[in-house]
């Protein structure tokens, strides 16, 4: 199994009472609560943590994209990936991922990702997502066009990487007389593509058909297994057998000296993530036109806060959404979940919610010493 240190880069100094009064940390939570001095310190703190992850033996680091939220300070993840491209020498760097439908010019992603692939000499992983519903409120994009814009932007980017230019492109949403991006990707025909999702059946079918790595977002492990099984079934329909390396699970892991101490230490910070920073009204998460009714029901069932019901940290641990405990407990649960769901990559959030730097680094070190050696060579 491979381990990627997945960082959300939250504004961990957020006023949680103000977030609660606002109904969530997305779009309408005023940026007057952002202190640029504290924010600048956080950017450097988080980049230092990701560099530390490579020193500890993690196989890669992950960034992602969200807009107008204290949940994650990465509206342009390529800026941060560029900062890491020179300091991280061996580990892979993944952006999971860029929200393609939000862009008026997807060619800029083709150029941005090609640059990162050159800077890392082929250690870059390109992630493509539609973006959650809140992003469409933030960016003023019609959510009913999300699927079409995503598919068209993806096709154009892949063609721009794999076919010599210049050539013209004329689609429904994007038109270009000249497609001729410089530089070309370091790896040909382009960097590997990973597709994170909340569990959309159409996304899983599409990713399996193209043999892309599918990444399941934070969900109960039984749900993770269900969606990974769906991917494997779609792969068989496409004429091949999916491998564990094509499946990645996004999780939170916290390792303490004992189960009791780990729960005591992690609890307030996981609660800040799940009940404040991740929470949003359902109409913000799933705006009209964003998805069909079947997918909407499925997402509401799998997301801890989509229905407005607050789950305790104990519930999240029991459901296998997060793993918290002493070293032996974490090893046993991760081995159980690996065998159950059959994933080959753990996208592990070692920092979550309001977890401070010293506790994050202690957690990272404990994972590297107590967890990674038991799984990386299996």
Largest sheet: 8 strands, parallel, barrel
Taking the alpha carbons of the first and last residues, their distance comes to 7 Å
Quote the CATH topology: TIM Barrel
Number of separate structural domains: 1
Number of strands: 11
Proportion of beta-strand residues: 15-25%
Total count of helical runs of at least 4 residues = 15
CATH superfamily label:
Luciferase-like domain
Helix/strand order: EHHEHEHEHHEEEHEHEHHHHEHEHH
Contiguous uncertain segments of 5+ residues: 304-308
CATH class: Alpha Beta
Using only C-alpha atoms, the radius of gyration works out to: 20 Å
- Please tell me the overall pLDDT: 95
CATH architecture: Alpha-Beta Barrel
Structural class, please? Answer: alpha/beta
The strand line-up of the biggest sheet is 1-2-3-4-7-8-9-11
Helix content estimate? 40-55%
Which shape, going by the Cα principal axes? globular
């Amino acid at each position: 199994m491979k381990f990627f240190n997945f960082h959300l880069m939250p504004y961990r100094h957020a006023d949680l009472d103000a977030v609660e009064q606002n109904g969530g940390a997305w779009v309408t939570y005023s940026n007057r609560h952002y202190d640029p001095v504290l924010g600048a310190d956080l950017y450097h703190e988080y980049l230092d943590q990701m560099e530390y992850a490579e020193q500890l033996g993690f196989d890669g680091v992950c960034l992602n994209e969200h807009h107008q939220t204290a949940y994650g300070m990465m509206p342009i993840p390529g800026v941060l990936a560029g900062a890491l491209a020179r300091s991280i020498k061996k580990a892979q760097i993944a952006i999971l991922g860029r929200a393609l439908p939000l862009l008026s010019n997807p060619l800029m992603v083709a150029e941005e990702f090609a640059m990162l692939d050159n800077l890392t000499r082929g250690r870059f992983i390109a992630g493509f997502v539609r973006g959650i519903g809140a992003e469409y409120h933030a960016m003023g994009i019609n959510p009913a066009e999300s699927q079409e814009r995503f598919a068209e932007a993806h096709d154009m980017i892949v063609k721009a990487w794999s076919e010599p230019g210049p050539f013209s492109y004329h689609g429904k949403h994007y038109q270009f007389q000249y497609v001729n991006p410089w530089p070309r990707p370091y790896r040909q025909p382009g960097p590997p593509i990973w597709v994170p999702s909340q569990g959309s059946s159409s996304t899983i079918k599409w990713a399996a058909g193209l043999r892309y790595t599918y990444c399941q977002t934070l969900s109960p492990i039984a749900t993770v297994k269900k969606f990974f099984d769906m991917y494997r079934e779609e792969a068989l329909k496409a004429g091949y057998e999916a491998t564990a390396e094509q499946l990645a699970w996004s999780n939170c892991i916290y390792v303490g000296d004992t189960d009791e101490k780990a729960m005591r230490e992690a609890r307030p910070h996981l609660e800040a993530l799940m009940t404040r920073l991740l929470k949003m009204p359902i109409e913000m998460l799933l705006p009209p036109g964003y998805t069909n009714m079947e997918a909407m029901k499925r997402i509401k069932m799998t997301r801890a806060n989509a229905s407005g019901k607050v789950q305790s940290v104990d519930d999240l641990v029991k459901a296998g959404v997060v793993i918290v405990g002493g070293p032996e407990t974490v090893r046993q649960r991760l081995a159980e979940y690996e065998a159950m769901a059959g994933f080959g990559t753990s996208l592990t959030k070692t920092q979550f919610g309001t977890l401070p730097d010293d506790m994050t680094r202690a957690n990272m070190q404990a994972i590297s010493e107590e967890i990674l050696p038991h799984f990386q060579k299996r």
